Amino acid sequence: MKEILPRQIESLMNILGTIPGIGAKTAERISFHIITSKDNMVQKLIDVLYDIKENIKICSECGMISDTDPCHICLSPERNREILCVVEKPTDVITIEKTGEYNGLYHVLWGVISPLEGIGPSDINISKLIERIRNLGIKEVFFALDPDSEGETTMAFIASKLRDIEGLNITTIARGIPLGGNIEYSDMYTLSRAIRFRTRLNDNL
Ligand SMILES: [Zn+2]
Questions:
Q1: What is the pLDDT of residues 63-79, one digit of tens each?
Q2: Could you report the per-residue pLDDT of 157-168, keeping only the tens digit for each?
Q3: Which residues have a Cβ under 8 Å from the Cβ of 114 and sit 6 or more positions away?
Q4: Element spanning 107, H or E
Q5: ipTM for the assembly
Q6: pLDDT tens digit string along 36-51?
Q7: In angstroms, what is the span from residue 47 Cα to ligand 1's centroid?
Q8: CB 188 within 8 A of CB 194
Q9: Which one of 12, 119, 145, 164 is CB 3.0 to 4.6 Å from 151, fit for a cystine?
Q10: In the chain, what are the domains?
Q11: How far is CA 59 from CA 33, 109, 121, in A?
Q12: CA atoms in the 13 A half-sphere facing the CB of 137
């Protein structure tokens, strides 16, 4: 099948096929949809991807994806600047924002510590996090990491670096998210409860 395809279409299918959740068959369907669309989709995609390439950056404060640096959340005077929510990836920020339960700052780690995969503390955005907590006068660090062993290891490591900060509350997402679950795929009700009933971590680490 592939031999009869022009290499340009094959390249597009190969790129789409690397996206998590998109298999070869779906990649083929999307590719043909784009190419045969009467809506000038090829040019629209070129324009939007170029705009993303030129204008989307990573906030040098919190690590979130944004079109400004610092990002809108870091700059907002309406956010509670005494609480900082630590997440694994940018999509977790979006998921938590949608609950409307949280109005503090964020910090995106871009991963979690995973000895099995050879990911150590220096491979993710931890040193900037420690620096921010100290410099911003944060009163509560709220971990919203997936409740699995990597999440636990990451929390324990970061908490160990914060022990000397007097009066700092360390909390974690609580009821509702099942062990081994995933923040991104939680329903809004479950995640809202988990944020509202977050628990204090200081005593357990
Ligand atoms: Zn930011």
A1: 999 999 999 999 999 99
A2: 999 999 999 999
A3: 150, 153
A4: strand 104-108
A5: 0.99
A6: 998 899 999 999 999 9
A7: 26
A8: no
A9: 145
A10: 2-55 (1.10.8.420), 65-204 (3.40.1360.10)
A11: 34, 12, 20
A12: 2
